[in-house]
Amino acid sequence: MKRKQQRQQAQFSEAKSKKISEEQLYEQILTLCVEAGPESYIRPEDVAMSLSDEWQGLLGRIRIAAKKLAQGGAVVILRKGKPADPDDFKGVYRLRIATAENRYVTEE
Fold first, then answer.
1. What's the alpha-carbon Rg for the chain, to the nearest Å?
2. Domain 2-97, what architecture?
3. pLDDT tens digits for range 58-88
4. Hey, which of 6, 35, 41, 103 would disulfide with 96, CB 3.0 to 4.6 Å?
5. Considering Cα of 99, then 104, then 107, then 108, what sign does the dihedral take?
6. What is the pTM of this model?
7. Residue 47 vs residues 50, 53, 96: alpha-carbon distances, Å
8. Which helix (H) or strand (E) holds 62?
9. 3-class DSSP state for residue 87?
10. Strand runs labelled E in 1-108
11. Is the pLDDT of residue 44 over 50?
């Protein structure tokens, strides 16, 4: 019975998180990054908690939105304090507003 309740709760959380549009995710990431400034960063959890009480269900969508924003040059994904390749990052990450100085540069 407990597994059924957990599954129902997860489905409810997922349904609630889907009410938040992709545009809202992009806007909130950019807003928080701008507020933090070019010398600081934000956590994906900060974005999620600012949008919903059921924030855990948003983390996957925020990761995807952050990746798209980084690919477009709007934000920088940080791993261990350094810019990371938005197409190839794993684990814990942070976000920073992109500037000419802090963008990820591919080594050719």
1. 15
2. Orthogonal Bundle (1.10)
3. 999 999 999 999 999 999 999 999 999 999 9
4. 41
5. negative
6. 0.78
7. 5, 11, 12
8. helix 59-71
9. coil
10. 75-79, 82-83, 94-97
11. yes
